[in-house]
Amino acid sequence: MEHQIHGAQQKRPFVTKDQLEAIASEHPTPFYLYDEAEIRRRAAELNAAFAWNPGFREYFAVKATPNPWIVSILAECGCGCDCATGPELMLAEAAGVTGRAVMLSSNDTPDEDFRAADELGAIINLDGPDMVDCLLRALGGRVPETVCCRVNPGGSFEASNGIIGSPEDSKFGMTEAQLLESFARLRDLGVREFGIHAFLASNTQVNDYYPRLARMLFEMAVRASRELGIRIGFIDLSGGVGVAYRPDETPCDLGVIGDGVRQAFEEVLVPAGMGDVAIYTELGRWMLAPAGALVTRVIHEKVTYRDYLGVDACAANLMRPAIYDAYHHISVMGAEDEPPTHRVNVVGRLCENSDQFARDRWLPDCGVGDLLFIHDAGAHGFSMGYNYNGTLRSAELLLREDGSVQQIRRAETPADYFATFDEDPRFSALAGARRKR
Ligand SMILES: Cc1ncc(COP(=O)(O)O)c(C=O)c1O
Question: What are the residue ranges spanned by the domains of the chain?
Fold first, then answer.
């Protein structure tokens, strides 16, 4: 059960009610709304935190918000792309991100994705020791000049406030012994530059996750370089820096995080003569979650054993509450400063009881017709959507820095939903819907 938050810091929408009503009069709810100014501000904050490292680059985790308009904005801010699949590589290329600015951090990778990444000139990150042979096979017996390997140290991962991840339960990565064996093989095959990557905890709420991870990977890099005589070109800290989904949580401080990584760098890599190593990150959630919201309207009210507000979005638009029991703060537009006096469940239309954006949530007085702003949905929100119950994906809108609004993806129509059926005269009504599109 959620509890009423007393005296907590307020989370405020990045638009006013009037602005949002004007947008909704042209674009029917539900829709995602992203804030360009906030995207650019966050990219600048991250780049500033790591400005001490000349080779630093953020590879935005495309899976978090796979929209080429968003990726292009990030590219203008100096970010590359972390891709997991062939279509994500295509999206990066379409947004003008190619060559070393693309990282293929995949697992269980089909050969064609290795080939696609190689054609783009992307850096390939191998998830397991068997992937050395897969890469060779995919590239016709050749290896790229630069290869990264993903390490998993096992055990549990601790930050100052206790255990924050359990790598030994994770399917990703290879052991340190396997990393060294893979590096030795790749060196003998002709690889000249190596990277080490690890992702050991998700949505961390602390400032010492990256610094501790970095120190561990730096020490590994020194061992690998000494034992194998290889050049480690970069350390990829991947994603995992979290955001304050709840109003009473303290957001991570990127400045403190960057300084912590720098201290480990100066204590471990610089004395080992490895001060030219570049730091890479693959943030998705931290970059985009607070810069995007799901906007939905209340369309029903029902009082049974609980008070329900039925909205026009559902878990197919944002599934994190349904599958992770994740908290997303909800603002009732126009009542941002009103006291939370009503305990409600905010629910969608799916034939699934898990389709509830909030349970026992205290909100200001609110009813049919009100617009709700579901915060921090800009990453792993739209992208995890699906079509259960024949529900359709919403539009994505971009609030430009000049205040204008651009539709960067239209809403799906039934025609999209029926587009992949094999045609048959019995289903002509569906085919008709397809042609109408
Ligand atoms: C390989 C890889 N990199 C980066 C990310 C982004 O993580 P986050 O959004 O937590 O920053 C993910 C998320 O699943 C991932 O799998």
Answer: 17-32+290-418, 36-289
In tens, the pLDDT along 87-105 reads 999 999 999 999 999 999 9
CATH number of 36-289: 3.20.20.10
Protein residue with least CA distance to atom 13, ligand 1: 239
Among 77, 314, 351, 366, the active-site one is 351
Cβ of 313 below 6 Å from ligand 1? no
Pick the CATH number of 17-32+290-418 from 3.90.550.10, 3.40.50.620, 3.20.20.140, 2.40.37.10: 2.40.37.10
Question: Residue 100: what residue type?
Answer: R
pTM of the model: 0.96
Q: How far is the CA of 287 from the centre of ligand 1 (A)?
A: 11
pLDDT at 435: 64
Active-site residue, 351 included = yes
238 ligand 1 Cβ < 6 A: yes
HSE, CB side, 13 Å, CA atoms: give it for residue 37. Answer: 9
Q: Scan for tokens 């009069």, then name that residue.
A: 25
